[in-house]
Design goal:
By secondary structure, the protein is α/β, with parallel strands linked by helices. The protein has 15 helices and six strands.
Length: about 325
Amino acid sequence: MGNDIEMIKPKAIILCGPTGIGKTSFAIQLARSFQGEIIGADSMQIYRHMDIGTAKPTPAERSMVPHHMVDIIDPDVSFDAESYATLSLPIVMALQARQVVPLVVGGTGLYIKSLIYGLFGAQPRDEKIRIRLKQKLEKEGAEVLFERLKQVDPVAARKLHVNDTYRIIRALEVYETAGVPISVYQQRHRFQESRLTTLKFGLHMERDRLYERIDQRVDMMIQAGLLDEVRRLREAGYSGALKSMQSIGYRHMGDFLEGRMDWPETIRTLKRDTRRYAKRQITWFKTDREIVWVDPVVSEDVKNRIQKFLSDRSGV
């Protein structure tokens, strides 16, 4: 019988959707209904000390349901989809062994995809080239590197902001190491066969209502002390050039602290960029035909689908 169980892929429920739509409360309800635990799939909630701007589950929420892949690294530690897949798959397997339902919850589509399928065909790396590019960044500024990327890989450059120095350097490193644009690697990218059996839910609501919620949440983050959080991170020695500190919210507060934007412009730009990010998330998830789109309220239909999914065969 043990061999039969090993042949069955672990089951996981996936809950995705754009920022600000209510994934955390939805997931907690499901986890409590089905004796599950939550595995975060958010590229920012992995960082310690970054709580307000990442809309991290509160201590009260985490006391209701165990959360994994939250607060696992410091803001200056390098982390990517491959790292996520490496760390999160054993958690799914451990929950499976305990007959606990894994709920993978978040808005970082590549993290979710890497967990389900794994990543291979990794892009080349060269430490010496990366160090040289970082030195060039410090001496000449981000604009110079960004212009270089526009020349060698305009496809990649169109997807990046000039301040996203981590990804700009990574793209230039790949190009200089292999002579092939990173966008070509991404197009060639192949995912393996699924490692999990999944039931995927995507949360959706009318776009104007979502944008209104996002604007309100930005106001709540400001009231909760986002500016002070960024100030404390800077004082703790975390540079504004770090990948984590270049993310939405943290980059904007940094621009204000360094005098690049006044306060009204900072708030306006933060709301605009968060709405744009939500739109990109929706576009990503809409390409996955396996996702069942539901309102951000746990319905009987959702519960019935999960019950049926968990009952089919003996995957959990």
